[in-house]
Amino acid sequence: MIFEILTIFPAMFASPLEDSIVGKARERGLVRVRVHNIRDFAADKHQMTDDRPFGGGEGMVMKPEPIVAALRAIKDDGPPARTILLSPQGRLFNQEIARELSLLSRIVLICGRYEGVDERVAEHYSDDQLSIGDYVLTGGELGAMIVVDALTRLVPGALGNVGSALADSFSEPVLEHPQYTRPQTFEGLAVPDVLLSGNHEMIRRWRRGQALLRTSMRRPDLFSRLDLSSEDLSLLEAAREEFRRTEKNGCPDRL
Questions:
Q1: Is the pLDDT at 252 greater than 70, yes or no?
Q2: What is the model's pTM?
Q3: Active-site entry in 88, 113, 141, 214
Q4: What letter would DSSP give residue 159?
Q5: CA distance 88 to 84
Q6: Any catalytic annotation for residue 247?
Q7: CB burial string 157-189: b at 16+ within 10 A, e below
Q8: Hey, which end of the chain has fewer CB within 10 Å, N or C?
Q9: Which of 16-20, 168-172, 238-242 is most confident?
């Protein structure tokens, strides 16, 4: 998979693209990430990429010419690409969209700045728009990093454990179950006995129930989308009962 990133702050991508899963995937040739400085495609000597909005208003708007020039310059440098504008007005990025995009061989990500980009870029020179959430960021760079990371995890071979991507939270609309590691007891808090039992079926059932409970409590919007089986309902009730017992016994303040 090839990622083409258009930005006026290319240095922001140096460390995130070199480390962790993305960095290793690049080293193995599973993904390629090419960062393009939009300023390099500005026609004037000052390399201006923004201007005041027509009709007045606060802030500046990114000009269409440098962005479109960059898109045209990279158009034929690889397989056909889908062009995506990172924008608060776009589709809310989620795991389903990540899976959809992971099937593509090449993606162009346009990072907006200031008050946004000229509407003609959004309407006529991009194929899609994505938002990473309902909050305000300084630009689209962080959103582009998130998209690259999420899609890279879905590239075959990018993760050491093939099952990791399938087991990730949001592979279905259910949060992940609680995870524990050594030590077995920490400051009086013990790992649940079921995880030490060695009974894989009991562990599977406990984890499923805990995952459903977490989803119902923390993300009711996701929980409402679930079609629960009779086993799921039974495991959820068991998890709720365990939670009620824990709440009744209380937990000491650790800080």
A1: no
A2: 0.85
A3: 88
A4: S
A5: 12
A6: no
A7: ebbeeeeebeebbbbebbbebeeeeeeeeeeee
A8: C
A9: 238-242
Write down the catalytic residue from 113, 141, 153, 208. Answer: 153
**42-51: long-range contacts, CB 8 A cutoff, minimum separation 24:** 42/66, 42/69, 43/69, 49/8, 49/113, 50/113, 50/114
Strands, sheet with 106-111, edge to edge from the N-terminal-most edge strand:
32-37, 2-7, 106-111, 82-92, 128-131
- pLDDT on residue 172: 80
What is the C-alpha end-to-end distance of the chain, expressed in Å? 46
Catalytic annotation present for 115: yes
CA 20 centroid distance within chain: 15
153 is catalytic: yes
Backbone angles phi, psi at 20, to 5 degrees: 55, -145
Record the tokens describing residue 162, joined without a space: 């093939």
Tokens encoding 190: 């013990």
pLDDT at position 169, please? 46
In this structure, is the dihedral angle defined by the CA atoms of residues 69, 38, 76 and 82, taken in order, positive or negative? negative
User: What is the percentage of the chain residues whose pLDDT exceeds 90?
Assistant: 86
Question: What is the pLDDT, as a whole number, of residue 134?
Answer: 93
For 95, 169, 176, 191, 217, the CA distances from 228, given in Å and listed in that order, are 20, 17, 16, 27, 16
Q: Is the pLDDT of residue 102 over 60?
A: yes
